[in-house]
Amino acid sequence: MPPFEIVNNQYNIAYYCTRHQCLNGKGEKTAFRWIDHKGERADYTFRQLDTESNKMANVLLQLGIKKGDVVFTFLPKMPEQFFAFLGILKIQAVAGTLFSNFGEEALADRLGDCRAKVVITKKSMLKKLLRALPFLDKLEFILVVDGDENNEKIMSLPGLLEKSSDSFEIPVTSADTPSVLHYTSGSTGKPKGVQHVHKSILTQSYTSINVLTLNEEDLYWCTADQGWVTGTSYGIIGPWSLGITQLHYGGAYSAETWMKLLEEEGVSKWYTAPTALRMLMREDKNIFKKYPLKKLQHIFSVGEPLNPEINTWAKDVWGKEVYDTWFQTETGSIMICNRPRIKIKPGTMGKPVDIINAAIISDDGKPCLPGETGNLCLKTPWDSMFIDYLNNTGVYNEKIKNGYYYSGDLAFCDDEGYYHFVGRNDDVINTAGHLISPFEVESSLLEIPEIAESAVIGAPDDILFEKVVAFIRLKNGITWSDDLELKIRIYLSNRLSSIATPQDIRVVEEIPKNKSGKIMRRVLKAWYKGEDPGDISTMEI
Amino acid sequence: MIMETFDELNAIFCKVFYDDDIKISRENTADDIEGWDSLSHLNLVVAVERHFGIKFTDAEIAKWKNIGEMYDSLLLLIQKKGK
Predict the structure, then answer these.
(1) What is the pLDDT, as a whole number, of residue A285?
(2) What is the DSSP track for A1-31?
(3) pLDDT tens-digit profile of A227-250?
(4) What is the CATH topology of the domain spanning A15-409?
(5) pLDDT tens figures, A72-106
(6) CA angle at A237 for the pair A194 and A10, rounded to the nearest 5°
(7) What is the complex's ipTM, to 2 decimals?
């Protein structure tokens, strides 16, 4: 695969994912095969990707949206998601994506923080958005991909697209123009907007070639939802910047369906998540005998550390290794990984990509020795590095020290240069590859009238890597019941998202706090795991 | 009686997924209801069990391919309970 090259100083991501491919003779090549949850399929060429996103760009311009404005999609995986994302980038607006399972509070926090002007959604998700609307005074338009409603604020997108031209002159876009915005959770405060710029395409395409080994003949399937960074960096930008054909599937996880898709569509490179692989491991082995996946060359994984036993299992059922990759919303593309062409070391994060310098640094800023655990850091800058946390530059500055980005992960590097994940240096919970802020869950719990206090931790889980566990203290006179537990689950699932809903809720007499009132999650984690909580001299209960 | 049970099941879907306009049919699957994923499925199952005072086995739950099959399991358990 030839390396990706910038032409005429044009850095626009959407230009390379669409027009550039057409100008290079790939206009009639399939950009993606879309298979909906009922199994209906439709192929879209790069020319269609270009014209459909042109129309989207023209609609936004007609609505008065301009360079730098924030436009979000709140959609499940569907073709309109891709057209909208690329159309937004074509006009140099900022493209944000939202996980389709977010509840009203999660929506209000994110859309309110970035002052989004437009949200593109579908009819069945509109209600959640409308419940968040009172908190979104900057939101000007809601475009509904399958709606026929038309008023000043809510408009039918098909109606607008029908009147829109399919030609669009993509402006020459500088390397540092803001492009994609994703929200990520920290251990304190509300979710933070991670801002990227158009030159991220350089690292995303580089890693698509040199890690995912994508080439012209591939059919590539990235199972990530476009609401998360993997879904945009490697489900849109990386592969399409290289003119690679993708498979996109709109249904939920099902072992049988996934295996059938891999087999019958002839997927050659597959990028998925450890949680999905762990779920597949629990399936009857006969499923895998039915689908030998002869065309599948490589399997990659991202989201949480990959257990070595997954690798052993994958070799057993498919005769393939699984390459674990590590990156974050902030890094924008793969930084450290096991990959083809280097010896795989199961259970490790792998080695840094050759254009990335990683280091393990102690809390006092000194490089750690091999085998010594410290802060996993990356030498700045690199092209897909975020440029800021929106409205939170102070937090951004705290993460960049002496020319290194501090990832918040703890790790060590062994004698052979392989990195080993140890844990987080904060309280963020990684459940099925999604980062959950304990603060967000605690705050939502406190909205429930029966709850007086709450504390949330992550605890090890066989499938999810970590599960969300809540400790609550009930108000005086309230009795714990199965109905109250169900009420809490349903409330959180709809306010935040199903992934943020505690898997386990424990009722306690007191929440352990230190003398300044800070929740001692360390103590709760130890209690939960039946371990010694260590020094509790600062605890005040 | 059967229609009432189906309506009650519909009401549980509305409650679990915060949407009063959900109209379920036997053929619907998780792909047809916004927000119905493997995690919210747990809420749904527990809500149905609590409402009807029954308990599904893991094997029953694993077999469901659509709402119709879930409903059939539910009816069987209600009948057993009534005996």
Answers:
(1) 86
(2) -PPP--BTTB--HHHHHTHHHIIIIITTSEE
(3) 999 999 999 999 999 999 999 999
(4) Rossmann fold (3.40.50)
(5) 999 999 999 999 999 999 999 999 999 998 999 99
(6) 90
(7) 0.81
pTM: 0.90
Q: Do A498 and B35 touch (CB under 8 A)?
A: yes
pLDDT in tens, A293-318: 999 999 999 998 888 999 999 999 99
- HEC per residue, chain B: CHHHHHHHHHHHHHHHCCCCCCCCCCCCCHHHCCCCCHHHHHHHHHHHHHHHCCCCCHHHHHHCCCHHHHHHHHHHHHHHHHC
- Residues whose CB falls within 8 Å of the CB of residue A497, separated by 6 or more in sequence, listed in order: A99, A101, A102, A103, A106
Q: Token pair 């094997």 is at which residue?
A: B59
pLDDT tens digits along A494-541: 999 999 999 999 999 999 988 777 888 889 999 998 888 776 666 665
CA distance B62 to A326: 33
- Asked if B39 lies within 8 A of A499 by C-beta distance, the reply is yes
- A245-249 and A30-35 beta bridge pairing: parallel
Decide if A127 and B19 are in contact by the 8 Å CB cutoff: yes
For A491, the 3-state DSSP assignment is helix
Cα of B36 to nearest chain A Cα, Å:
9
Minimal CA–CA distance to A259: which of A224, A222, A290, A302?
A290
Which residue of B15, B18, B51 to mutate against A (max A Cβ within 10 Å)?
A: B18
pLDDT of residue A204: 98
Chain B residue closest in CA terms to A37 = B31
| Domain regions of chain B by residue span | 2-82
Contact state of B43 with A489 under an 8 Å Cβ cutoff: yes
Smallest Cα distance from A433 to chain B, Å = 14
Interface test with A, best of B16, B38, B49, B65 (most A CBs within 10 A): B38
B41 Cα to chain A: minimum distance (Å): 9
User: What's the CATH fold of domain A431-529?
Assistant: GMP Synthetase; Chain A, domain 3 (3.30.300)
Residues A502/A469, Cβ–Cβ less than 8 Å: yes
User: What class, spelled out in words, does domain B2-82 have in CATH?
Assistant: mainly alpha
A52-91 residues touching B, CB cutoff 8 A: 76
Tell me whether residues B34 and A125 touch, CB distance under 8 A: yes
What pLDDT, on the 0 to 100 scale, is given for residue B30? 86
